[in-house]
């Protein structure tokens, strides 16, 4: 009887704890439902239907804690095929939930659904989710807020409030029509008509506040953690708040050594957390999101605006405004990038690979191929090591798992077929590219170094490269050609920034290192959507390890088929 009584007391205690503190039990599984639907939205005095999640633009914020299991049912109610990518989530052994169409899954057809199921592992901070098929991510995107584990504090003073700031682009035309017309012509698409801050071009757009605008209300003396996300398709953006400095504390869900700045640079797919101190005289201050591009090509140079409004100020008060950086402010961009450093503390170490098993040189850039159906007779392409990647008709991960033949080859080149002066004055003779569906294979837990080398074909450009399935360390960057003898002397192997997306500088190079500790097929591509469309992409195939917990999980039963 004593044993039974104790057992009953124990059960009653568990039930009571679950009732009084449900988050302690339930926080381990976070369930969301994403209904992909069309909604009519008005911006720039133009109304058009856009694809959204749950009718929201930007979409809903996904909240979870480190080590939580996240389950998201995505229901496709629109005419397009759909996938959702959880940008920056490591997806340890759960590549089936990564999301890029024809890489890890076939798309979700209209009228069907798919459940994404993943765990947030050793990540805390801000990431984003977005569509990863066609150009749907122009409007199908939202924030991921990965909170620390329960009772684990931030490594900086806790803010009074946290705010998501999503930067984006807006086209008055249908975005899918924009890219379809460009592909038919063989040339570049029309640039966007405006930038947005939390979905609005702002009070200084050509329609003023008729379409609505974003306003952040703050209280004097309080601190705000801004979770800044660049969800734009094709442009790196500067973010600034007039009259204020920001303290950067995290990038791509990795804590950084804090530093102060008046301008933040975020490339497409990148995130930055920064502390805003509301320490200025009460009033209204302008926020801006403006383009960074230091090469002479077409760009949307319309600045998005929003208002920082101190409590007690009047809506009629004058707005303090300072000009954003010039569009070609390379020095401002470089200063920000060079200030980013990993914490490398006992709690948050920087585990930089000191030696590498694979040393790769990926020469990235533009090219031109003949096109009989194009009015100009040519088609702009993009390539890595002269290979313009072609998406297969079956997802690479499925082909790998089921050992399908003929879907891809494992001969992605380690280096360009011909060495040349990559950033010199090159002629059209070297612009032609080859096409193929090639992957680069590595064994589990091997270390990889990739030097991404820009070129000057057509025009030198920044290329924000995103690696799925991993974080990497950006150990060095430089202008001109990478020198295998001298450039490694500049490598930072102590506290380089760790992230999932980093830019190849215009006319330069960047060196990254990562450990291949996640089995599966992992996409690597430029996060300028037009460059991805043109073929600036490839994939790593990482073998299973020796142990079961080092192997890719089996595919879920509801995995879409092609």
Secondary-structure map with pairings?
Elements: H1 2-20, H2 22-26, E1 29-43, E2 46-53, E3 62-65, E4 69-76, E5 84-87, E6 113-119, E7 125-131, E8 141-147, E9 161-170, H3 175-185, E10 194-197, E11 215-218, E12 223-230, E13 236-241, E14 246-251, E15 254-261, E16 264-266, E17 271-277, E18 284-292, E19 304-310, E20 319-320, H4 330-339, E21 358-370, E22 378-384, E23 387-389, H5 396-401, E24 434-436, E25 439-442, E26 447-453, E27 463-467, E28 472-479, E29 497-499, E30 501-504, E31 508-515, E32 520-526, H6 529-534, E33 537-542
Parallel strand pairs: 1-4, 3-8, 9-12, 11-19, 18-20, 21-26, 23-24, 25-33
Antiparallel strand pairs: 1-2, 4-6, 5-7, 7-8, 9-10, 12-17, 13-16, 13-18, 14-15, 14-17, 18-19, 21-22, 26-31, 27-30, 27-32, 28-29, 28-31, 32-33
- Give the beta-strand count: 33
Pick out the low-confidence regions. 1-26
Structural class: mainly beta
Distance between the termini: 61 Å
What gross morphology would you assign?
globular
Major sheet: 6 strands, mixed
Summed up, the helix count is 6
Largest sheet strand order? 10-9-12-17-14-15
In short:
The chain has 562 residues and is mostly beta strands. It contains 6 helices and 33 strands.
């Amino acid at each position: 009887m004593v044993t039974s009584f104790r057992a009953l007391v124990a059960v009653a205690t568990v039930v009571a704890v679950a009732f009084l503190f449900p988050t302690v039990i339930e926080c381990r599984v976070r369930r969301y439902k994403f209904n992909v639907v069309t909604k009519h939205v008005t911006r720039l005095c133009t109304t058009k239907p856009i694809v959204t999640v749950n009718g929201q633009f930007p979409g809903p914020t996904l909240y979870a804690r480190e080590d939580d299991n996240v389950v998201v049912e995505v229901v496709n109610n629109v005419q397009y095929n759909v996938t959702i990518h959880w940008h920056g989530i490591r997806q340890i052994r759960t590549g089936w939930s990564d999301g890029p169409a024809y890489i890890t899954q076939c798309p979700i057809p209209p009228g069907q659904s798919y459940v994404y199921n993943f765990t947030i592992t050793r990540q805390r901070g801000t990431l984003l989710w977005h569509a990863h098929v066609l150009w749907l991510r122009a409007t199908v995107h939202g924030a991921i807020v990965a909170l620390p584990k329960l009772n684990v504090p931030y490594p900086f003073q806790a803010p009074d409030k946290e705010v998501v700031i999503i930067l984006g682009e807006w086209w008055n035309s249908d975005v899918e029509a924009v890219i379809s017309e460009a592909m038919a012509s063989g040339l570049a698409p029309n640039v966007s008509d405006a930038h947005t801050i939390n979905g609005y071009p702002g009070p200084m757009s050509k329609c003023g506040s008729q379409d609505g605008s974003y306003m952040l209300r703050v209280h004097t003396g309080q601190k705000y953690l801004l979770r800044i996300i660049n969800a734009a398709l094709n442009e790196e953006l500067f973010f600034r708040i007039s009259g204020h400095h920001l303290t950067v504390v995290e990038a791509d869900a990795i804590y950084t050594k804090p530093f102060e700045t008046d301008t933040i640079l975020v490339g497409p797919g990148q995130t930055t957390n920064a502390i805003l101190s509301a320490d200025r005289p009460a009033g209204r201050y302008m926020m801006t999101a403006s383009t960074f591009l230091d090469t002479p090509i077409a760009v949307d140079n319309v600045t998005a605006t929003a208002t920082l409004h101190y409590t007690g100020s009047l809506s009629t008060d004058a707005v303090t405004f300072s000009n954003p950086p010039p569009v070609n402010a390379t020095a401002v961009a470089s200063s920000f990038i060079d200030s980013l450093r990993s914490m490398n503390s006992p709690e948050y170490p920087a585990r930089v690979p000191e030696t590498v098993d694979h040393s790769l040189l990926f020469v990235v850039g533009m090219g031109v191929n003949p096109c009989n159906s194009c009015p100009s007779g040519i088609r702009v392409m993009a390539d890595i090591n002269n290979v313009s990647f072609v998406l297969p008709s079956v997802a690479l991960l499925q082909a790998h798992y089921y050992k399908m033949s003929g879907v891809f080859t494992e001969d992605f080149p380690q280096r360009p077929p011909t060495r040349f002066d990559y950033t010199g004055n090159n002629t059209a003779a070297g612009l032609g590219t080859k096409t193929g569906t090639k992957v680069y294979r590595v064994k589990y837990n091997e270390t990889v170094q990739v030097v991404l080398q820009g070129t000057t074909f057509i025009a030198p450009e920044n290329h924000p490269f995103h690696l799925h399935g991993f974080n990497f360390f950006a150990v060095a960057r430089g202008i001109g050609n990478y020198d295998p003898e001298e450039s490694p002397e500049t490598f930072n192997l102590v506290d380089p920034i760790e992230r999932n997306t980093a830019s190849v500088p215009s006319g330069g190079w960047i060196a990254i290192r990562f450990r291949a500790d996640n089995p599966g097929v992992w996409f690597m591509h430029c996060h300028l959507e037009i460059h991805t469309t043109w073929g600036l992409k490839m994939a790593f195939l990482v073998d299973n390890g020796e142990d079961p917990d080092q192997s890719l999980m089996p595919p879920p039963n509801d995995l879409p088929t092609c």
